[in-house]
Specification:
The protein is an alpha/beta fold. The protein has one domain: Rossmann fold (3-Layer(aba) Sandwich). The chain has a seven-stranded mixed beta sheet with strand order 3-2-1-4-5-7-6, with helices on both faces. The longest helix has 13 residues.
């Protein structure tokens, strides 16, 4: 797996071997960033279910100013830290469940312009992720929530407006904004 764009383009990222992690493919990441190309520069990023940290690191490579990585898996947290170190980035990694991360970030009154979420398809729905984002008011007023999920899943999160949906075989990526 490689960083797909920006100043760190082509750098290799470490992933956890086995079936416990399903990294976002380079093709899907490239497509996501093509959609977001005008929203990345200067953005504050939250990468939930970060896995290897590829989405957040790719955003930083493309001009985001900061990123927070959330991952509950011990091996995945180690991979994120290794990847950040390998590209000389010092960003926070929260080794907690996404719900706990929401609470911790809300206590610090953190808001994010781009929130990436790639939850386990069979366990956590886009609606569950959006509920945490809204419960803890993590999305900036003009921010975007980008959720990778199983293709064909149509459960629309409350308080969210679907802006775009892109399908890649078994994977779908939905781009949401807060309803105003």
């Amino acid at each position: 797996m490689r960083i797909t764009g920006g100043r760190l383009r082509g750098r290799i990222l470490h992933t956890v071997p086995g079936l416990t992690t399903r990294p976002t493919t380079d093709k899907v990441r490239q497509s996501i960033f093509n959609v977001l190309m005008h929203d990345i520069d200067g953005a504050r990023v939250l990468d939930i279910f970060a896995g290897s940290g590829a989405l957040g690191i790719d955003a930083l490579s493309r001009g985001a100013v900061s990123a927070v990585f959330v991952e509950a898996g011990k091996k995945q947290v180690e991979a994120i830290k290794k990847n950040l170190k390998s590209v000389d980035l010092d960003m926070p990694v929260l080794a907690v469940d996404y719900r706990e991360a929401g609470r911790l970030l809300a206590e610090k009154e953190k808001k994010f312009d781009l929130i990436f979420a790639d939850p386990p398809y069979e366990e956590i729905t886009p609606r569950m992720v959006a509920e945490i984002v809204f419960r803890y008011n993590l999305l900036s007023p003009d921010g975007l929530l980008i959720i990778e999920h199983k293709s064909g899943l149509t459960a629309k999160p409350e308080n969210m407006k679907l802006l775009k949906r892109k399908k890649y075989g078994q994977t779908e990526v939905s781009f949401y904004a807060a309803k105003k």
